[in-house]
Amino acid sequence: MSERGSGTTSGDLASGPIAPSPLHQLPVEFVGSFPDPLVKLDPPLPEVAFIGRSNVGKSSLFNALVGKPGLARVSGTPGKTTLLNAFRLPDFYLVDLPGYGFARAGKAARAGYRSMITRYLVERPDLAGVVWLLDIRHDPSKDDFDIQDLLVESGRPVLAALTKADKLTRTASLTRTRELAAALGLHESQVQLTSSKSRLGITELGQSILATVGGAR
Ligand code: GDP
After folding, report:
1. Cα separation of 186 and 188, whole Å?
2. Is 196 in the pocket of ligand 1 (CB under 6 A)?
3. What is the spatial distance between Cα 104 and Cα 144, in angstroms, rounded to a whole number?
4. How many helices and strands, by DSSP H and E, does the chain display?
5. 132-156: per-residue pLDDT in tens?
6. What is the DSSP string of 187-211?
7. Residue with the nearest Cα to atom 22 of ligand 1?
8. Before 35, cis peptide (omega within 30)?
9. pLDDT range class, residue 90, cuts 50, 70, 90
10. What is the DSSP letter of 79?
11. Residue nearest ligand 1's atom 2 by CA
12. Rg of the chain over all Cα atoms, to the nearest angstrom
């Protein structure tokens, strides 16, 4: 996803009509929930995974992207799910990975999560790219930096989606984009401002996903 052009960030914030996500036109099929990170999906197709801390706004962004409000559950009890959820669209899969950094998770649960995510990110044969969600208002946590290490190890294209951008002013959003890109060692073209509420950046994120899976074939 690093192939995205630079300068998209400020363009996202320009006022004007908001186009729907290009994924809205595609039929979406829920394939299943799986505990095994190396589960074989049939047929094998390129995959784009979504990962982020619990409560980052992953379910909301996912639903906004595919245009199906109830598809991924917007949860009141974060951290409960330890399964990956696969959706077929129909020439690629979107894979919703369980949220990390759940405060009440015990040591064993954290180790299990880490092992599952490591295997998924590093060994998954058809993983074309990863959408990494980070709340625009928060500095990266230790858990975020751990995931960053895994993303680097996996060598997959990464697009950081900064969520809940509606909570900041335009100027503050741009400043945070630069700060978070620097903190995470990402080029600004790999960082997308998003809001499920205002729909900021949803079209651009959909386009990046299509470009990523198109390039994977
Ligand atoms: P998940 O745990 O990462 O799947 O996060 P959810 O999608 O369940 O959202 C967590 C909370 O953040 C919910 O209360 C959502 O209503 C809220 N939320 C999600 N996206 C946005 C957004 O773009 N803007 C605002 N203001 N709130 C959001």
Report:
1. 6
2. yes
3. 17
4. 6, 7
5. 999 999 999 999 999 999 999 999 9
6. -GGGEEE--TTT-TTHHHHHHHHHH
7. 164
8. no
9. very high
10. T
11. 55
12. 16
Helices (H), 166-201: 170-184
Hunting for tokens 């998209």 — which residue is that?
8
Which atom of ligand 1 is nearest to 198's Cα?
23
Classify 122 as helix, strand or coil.
Answer: helix
* Dist. CA 11–CA 192, nearest whole Å: 11
Give residue 84 CA to ligand 1 midpoint distance, Å: 19
Q: What is the pLDDT of residue 216?
A: 60
- Interval between CA 40 and ligand 1 midpoint (Å): 30
Q: What length is written for the chain? A: 217
Q: Establish whether the linkage from the previous residue to 17 is cis, with ω within 30° of 0.
A: no
Cα-to-centroid distance, 19 and ligand 1 (Å)? 21
Strand partners, 44: none
CA trace torsion 115, 140, 165, 49 (10° rounding): -20
Give me ligand 1 centre to Cα 217, in Å.
33
Q: Which residue has the tokens 């895994």?
A: 150
pTM for the model stands at 0.89
Strand order in the sheet with 29-34: 29-34, 84-88, 93-96, 47-52, 127-135, 158-163, 191-193
Q: What's the confidence (pLDDT) of residue 215?
A: 67
In single-letter form, the type of residue at position 115 comes to S
Pair of tokens at residue 131 = 């959408």
Identity of residue 76: G
User: By CB neighbour count within 10 A (0-12 exposed, 13-18 middle, 19+ buried), where does 153 fall?
Assistant: exposed
